[in-house]
Hints:
Protein name: Putative G-protein coupled receptor
Strand order of the largest sheet: 1-2
Subcellular location: Membrane
CATH topology: Rhopdopsin 7-helix transmembrane proteins
Largest sheet: 2 strands, antiparallel
CATH class: Mainly Alpha
Organism: Habropoda laboriosa
Number of domains: 1
Number of helices: 12
Pfam family, one: 7tm_1
Radius of gyration: 25 Å
Region (Disordered): 344-367
Amino acid sequence: MIEAANATETRICLLPEELQVLEDPRTPSLIRISYGIVLPAICCLGIVGNILNLVVLTRRNMRGIAYIYMRGYSAAALLAIFFCIPFALRVLIHKETGRWNNWAQAFYHAHLELFLGNGCLGVGVMMLLALTVERYVSVCRPGQHTRPLCGPPHLTVILIPLATFLVYLPSAFRGEITTCLLAPGGPVIYQKRENQSYLDSMFYQVYKVVLEMVFKVAPTILLAGFNLRIMVVYRRSCERRRRMTLSRTVSNDEDPRTFAEERRLVLLLGSTSILFLVCVSPMVILNVTLRESNLSHYPYQLFRALANLLEVIYYSITFYIYCLFSEDFRNTLIRTLQWPWGKNSQGGRGLPMRRSPVPRPTTTTTAVATPGHLTRASV
């Protein structure tokens, strides 16, 4: 114990300011712009949007199975954005090694920072996947499954976070805490560094690749495939409904709404799949190649900043996608914001739902949900 104490006393801290000598001169300005300006602005939009998501998705008319998964996704995205803030502050102020007087703060950044942030992002991906699977079954395999394929929704949204954080648990040990002194006889300072022996182990080398396959690559392929199939089936249903409408010589007032609804859904399914691919795929490369030795290279720092920004953007724009593509969501949002100040708050509670004066030719209604939308289509 005495030898260990003496070793600690003779070790002088390598401060973040001293590490800048080894950095590319362009790196500090990149970090300042990316993590000090752009990322906080995106996080603010994401926090406001996901809070409004949760407010709207808990309204009385948002009680379906799809809305349960959408609430779970919004909650996971909101937590992930909150955990992104201390990560950005650490990179911006404390750099990679850090310099903390408090052991608990050092422990958080060394062991919990990436574990909690990436775990919440993984929960969001699994919520999207469960939501899309359920909608695929209801739209493309109607009547074949009388119960939700993923199990009871309320139980599933509890099991998904438990299983996800359990899978992400090994990533909590990729860092370790070291102690040093600012000056001989000065106070003890805590810093973080990579657990190099753990990162070089065969277990972790295999684990990080499997992790990215499970939570990034496979969901990207499945979401694109399920959304494409839903889009094809929905367009066929719209064609049948259009032919039935024409054969019954009903007023053509319904056709523009049908075309608009179909166009919105097609754009939504295509855009969400492309956005997920573009915004999440760079993180696969980053998480597999993330090492302190790579952070000294400016191109890698640039790629790291872009990958982090793109992923945060994806989980921050959900609310705005809902507002853009879902009429039901917009109407519910307006009624929620109007109450209790709206003119119709006494009894009516805000904006009434728009309904077509022309009766639908069929009466079976199927909810078509995607990772960012739920629209109702008669089929």
